[in-house]
Design goal:
By secondary structure, the protein is of the alpha+beta class. It is built from one helix and eight strands; from the N terminus they run H-E-E-E-E-E-E-E-E.
Length: 105
Amino acid sequence: MKKSGLNFSIIIALLAGLFSFTSIRSGGIQGKILPSDGLAEALAVSGTDTIAAEISNGNIKFSNVKAATYLLLIKAKQPYKDTSVENVAVIDSTITDIGEVRLER
C-alpha cells in the first residue's frame, strides 16, 4: 500500500512538472534591414537578457523570445552606421514585425 502511494505521488509530481513548462509561451521578433549587405549583427536586449538574431539576406529573426519590451541593436558594416529600434514589445505566442529599417551612411 505504501509503495503504490509513493508511485502515485511520483507520477503526480512528474505531471505537474510537465504542465508547468507548457504554460511558458515565447514569441519572436522579425524585420528587414536595408541595405542587406550593410548588416553585420542584430541583438535584442531587455534587462539582463541579450538575444542574437538569425540573419538571412537582410532579414532578421529572433526566436523563443520571452514576453517583454526590447531594444534592438543593429550593428552595421562600414560605411553604414549602427542604429537601434526602441520599445519593441513582444507578447506571448506572437511575432512582432518591426518592418523595414534603413541603415544610414
